[in-house]
Amino acid sequence: MATYSELMAQAQALMAQAEQVRKQELAQVIADIKTTMRQYGLTVEDLGVTPVRVRPAGRRTKAPAKYRGPNGELWSGGPGRKPEWVKAILAEGKDIEAYRI
């Protein structure tokens, strides 16, 4: 009888082999799907799938500024660390809403 380690090694080898075969078959499967969609005039929306727009990594949109500091500094009031000027205003006991744009 095979040991646990031997069976795990066999399972990993089979999974690697299955992944290689999947990658080899993938291009043909995609081509077949595209051909069938063209043949029947189908769109992605017809399939009930909404296309997902992906933003490039590292490109976040900035939130619009909601507050302007005493020296013209801007802050959106979002999550994260508060700017030093906001900390100073709050430490003085002032209301941050007085600086709302």
Automatic annotation (TrEMBL):
Location of the DNA-binding protein H-NS-like C-terminal domain: 57-101
Name one cellular component (GO) term: nucleoid
Instruction: Show the segment(s) annotated as Disordered.
Output: 58-79
Source superkingdom:
Bacteria
Localisation per UniProt entry: Cytoplasm, Nucleoid
Q: Report which residue ranges the record marks as coiled coil.
A: 1-28
Gene3D superfamilies, per the entry: Histone-like protein H-NS, C-terminal domain
Keywords for the protein's UniProt record, in alphabetical order = Coiled coil, Cytoplasm, DNA-binding
PANTHER family to which the protein is assigned, alphabetical: DNA-BINDING PROTEIN STPA, PTHR38097
Family assignment from sequence similarity: Belongs to the histone-like protein H-NS family.
Q: What is this protein called?
A: DNA-binding protein H-NS
Origin species:
Tepidicella xavieri
